[in-house]
Specification:
Layout (H helix, E strand, L loop, with lengths): L1 H31 L5 H34 L1
Helix pairs in contact: 1-2
């Protein structure tokens, strides 16, 4: 279970640093342009929402693993 928890945390870190943060920065830079393109922002936010959903599922998996470890 401990190895599984490490894997889950690693997946969450990769998603956060590799998908969520760059999507936020890209949206901010697109919004600062004189003529921001809504289709670009929409595509980036869809990616952000899917990634956030996967991260939420990984957090639930972390809770399950912690419960298994605590209950023995």
């Amino acid at each position: 279970w401990i190895v599984a928890s490490f894997i889950v945390v690693a997946v969450m870190a990769v998603i956060a640093l590799g998908l969520l943060e760059p999507a936020n920065i890209a949206v901010l830079t697109e919004l600062k342009k004189p003529q921001p393109r809504p289709e670009v922002i929409e595509r980036l936010m869809k990616r952000f929402l899917y990634s956030a959903g996967v991260t939420g599922a990984m957090q639930v998996a972390t809770f399950v693993i912690m419960t298994k470890l605590a209950s023995g």
